Amino acid sequence: MVTKGALKNILQICTYAETGDGSQVAIASVTNQIQKLFEQFSTGGFRTLGVAYKTTDADKPITKDSETDMTFIGLLTFWDPPKEGILETIKTLNSMGVALKVITGDNTLVAKNIGQQIGLKDAQLMSGPELSAMSDEALMKQVGAVHIFTEVEPNQKERIILALKKIGKVVGYMGDGINDASAIRAAHGGRSIEWGLTSLLPARWPV
Question: One GO molecular function term (predicted)?
């Protein structure tokens, strides 16, 4: 059985880690080393996932509860740079009075790197865990000043949109998957990009 996901979650279900020579060591003995590699890749803008495995009986059903006592085997890294011309697009939006906010499930280090690439060098960030600990009233006071929301859960995207609307902002939202459905519907205008959630096309921009 092989599983992948956010590094924090993968490490929590691992008891061992496999080394380069195929031997196994206690996960606790290499956690700091793994975390440093993760931070190095993330700071460089790479989306990074953990991968683990364990041997199971062929006749035994695999369930969520099977993800215990696993062996960490490595990291998967993905490079997804901003599209060419994005800086000019953002400048055009700013000249029209449209402010850009980034809402992402990516970790804070990756999101900060991407923000710098698209011109948000001094951006104020807020993470999903910080958002969870915040009341709606506190969020309304801060949401306008935040440029990048990181490590955000799908339901938190809608909460951010609603907070922006409550402070008087006209909000447009663009997403690319089913996790964006509630946020798209909550915005004044919402659109799913063409390779994303086709059920939400066409755009809901008000006339």
Answer: ATP hydrolysis activity
Residue 191 domain flag: no
Residues in the chain: 207
Q: Say yes or no to pLDDT of 174 above 80.
A: yes
> Do residue 101 and residue 165 come from a single domain?
yes
- By C-alpha distance, which of 107, 97, 157, 104 is closest to 132? 157
pTM greater than the 0.90 cutoff: no
Domain stops at, among 32, 51, 78? 78
Residues sharing a CB contact under 8 Å with residue 144, sequence separation 6 or more, in sequence order: 164, 167, 169
**Domain encompassing residue 150:** 86-169
- Percentage above 70 pLDDT, the chain: 93
Q: Is residue 47 part of a domain?
A: yes
Residues 95 and 68 in one domain: no
